[in-house]
Amino acid sequence: MERARAAALTEEALTRLIESQHQWPLNLITDVYLYGSFARGAPQPADVDLDIEYDQTDERWISTVIRALSNGRNPHTEFKKLLVGRKRGIEFVFNHRAEADYDMTLLWQRGEDLDTALNRIRGIKADPTAGRAPRDAMLPQFEGIDRWLPRPFRETLSRAIDAEAITVERVVLPDTDIDHPLARDHLQRRWRPESPLYRAGRAVFAHLLARNVDPAQVHLHGRDVRDSETPYFAGFSLRYLTSMQDCLTEHGGTEWIEVVHPTTRGPLDALRITPTGKPTPRDLLWIDS
């Protein structure tokens, strides 16, 4: 990404925040910090990394979190929607400053005006010697797909691996046709054949069928294929990966296959995540993206 575009995205997000700072849940935000390659002055940062600090004690927010988690959704989606809409290029973490072992640059805090925030962004000078920071929480399984696997996801998976709660295997799914009627019907009802999601779903079924897994026992990208008890879970583009904790700990899941970046051509790289059965803290697999 060009540095000018990174600056423009950051300025737009701060403008949205400050102009709507009395709107819930933006009124919960207390501080915004910048970190990563853009903050260090890299001419071509990979993306913009923002830490959003906010008040987690608000009663409405607590109710929202409970509802979101019970439905396998990310409660921070509303923040992202209001700050950037559908635009890409900004990676968010939330209330992360206390845990960060790297420098963060304050961009805005409650009570300050827009000019103050914009001047801080514009005051970050380009440094031709500043390259991209080493990717944190990198494992061999993430190589080559890390641009589509944001840091919070990598950190959670790495932490769970270190705790011996899960194993993560990198697999390339077969791009082949399938002849199972239930699997074919499910794909045809959900996606067009030219869709990258159709291709990813077909590859997941092909992989599982080769292992003699009954497609009826699969929960594919947010839906049961047939049975209500589904020990096999699969998702695409991290859309439902925040549900992994409940699926593998509360709903009898034996594995989760994540096609990180479905495409219409090229290799279909996926992560196969399996629980070890070792007792672990309840929130160890909770991914906050």
Oligomeric state? single chain
Shape: globular
Mean pLDDT: 89
Tally of individual domains: 2
- H/E order of the elements? HEHEHHEEHHEHHEEEHEE
The helix-and-strand class reads: alpha/beta
Q: Over all CA atoms, what is the radius of gyration? A: 21 Å
**Low-confidence runs of at least 5 consecutive residues:** none
In order across it, which strands form the biggest sheet? Answer: 5-10-9-8-6-7
Helix content range: 25-40%
Protein name: Nucleotidyltransferase domain-containing protein
InterPro entries: NT_sf
Organism: Actinoplanes sichuanensis
What can you see in these coordinates?
- The two termini are 21 Å apart.
- It is built from 9 helices and 10 strands.
- α1 packs antiparallel against α5 (114-122) and α7 packs antiparallel against α8 (196-210).
- β8 (232-236), α9 and β9 (255-259) form a beta-alpha-beta unit.
- The chain has 2 domains: 3-122, Beta Polymerase, domain 2; 140-275, no CATH class.
- 32% of the residues lie in helices and 19% in strands.
- It has helices at residues 3-19, 37-40, 59-70, 77-84, 114-122, 151-162, 181-190, 196-210, 244-249; strands at 29-35, 48-54, 90-94, 105-109, 166-173, 218-220, 223-224, 232-236, 255-259, 268-275.
- By secondary structure, the chain is of the alpha/beta class.
- The strands form 2 sheets. Strands 5-10-9-8-6-7 form a 6-stranded mixed β-sheet. Strands 3-2-1-4 form a 4-stranded mixed β-sheet.
- The model has no long low-confidence stretch (mean pLDDT 89).
